């Protein structure tokens, strides 16, 4: 089965109009391509609850912090189309760049507060780029539901906040992180890791779950942090940009998981920046 690829907004809108007339529920899965099983789990979730599914593929220049990172980002449209074929999606929207940022484009969407920490500290402007393109994709696709991975936990929060604040009538659905057998969260950036580096990367998840176990047993974050950082270093990681326990609703720092909590990490390995996060079981007060 071939997947129907649309590159122009007018074509997407024409298709969308027929679905809306028929009273169908439309879902969207925004991606930057280089699809892996994590992305495909979002497609499955969309297929399960929507009559029509649009997958978008757009490598959004505005959310990259350096031209090198943008240039190195994998672009694999043909392979992506093959991976999507078995899922029977209705449209793959691969907008030409001018369909997202036409000449003279001058608008940015910026979410305050929750973007000041974690990724926001280390990737200035990143979430403005994300919020802007996602707002556009929500409006362009007119979807009723959008599917995002918990892998990018802060991004999921930013997108939810943005849609609520702008009254975009869409339900943002968060889906669990899909992992390799080692526990490594699947990511398009993993493609840039050598076999040896992938093995080292597999240490990240057990270190994180080890931290979560200790926090759930009553140790404070300050007590476990030095050993966790040392374990990452021993595993071969370079700079750890952040390793934090945060409130899952506000991203405020926590010492103990007395409310829904998330352990979040960003660390470099062989020139690749990896991020991950897990839920930490809640302690009663
Ligand atoms: P990206 O193409 O990296 O921008 O990701 C597109 C969507 O896929 C985002 O909602 C990500 O959170 C989600 N995603 C990426 N990796 C995973 C994963 N390992 N498990 C679940 N969702 C993922």
Question: Please, could you describe this protein's structure?
Answer:
The protein has 285 residues and is of the alpha/beta class. It folds into two domains: 5-175, 3-Layer(aba) Sandwich (Rossmann fold); 188-277, Pantoate-beta-alanine ligase, C-terminal domain (Pantoate--beta-alanine Ligase, Chain: A,domain 2, 2-Layer Sandwich), CATH 3.30.1300.10. The chain contains eleven helices and nine strands. The protein has helices at 9-21, 37-49, 67-72, 77-84, 97-100, 119-122, 126-141, 153-165, 195-201, 204-216, 221-235; strands spanning 5-6, 26-31, 52-57, 91-93, 145-149, 171-175, 240-247, 261-269, 272-280. A six-stranded parallel sheet has the order 1-4-3-2-5-6, sandwiched between helices. Strands 7-8-9 form a three-stranded antiparallel sheet. Strand 5, helix 8 and strand 6 form a beta-alpha-beta unit. It is globular and about 55 Å long. The chain starts with a strand and ends in a 5-residue tail after the last strand. The mean pLDDT is 97. Bound molecules: adenosine monophosphate (AMP). Adenosine monophosphate (AMP) binds next to helix 2 and strand 5.
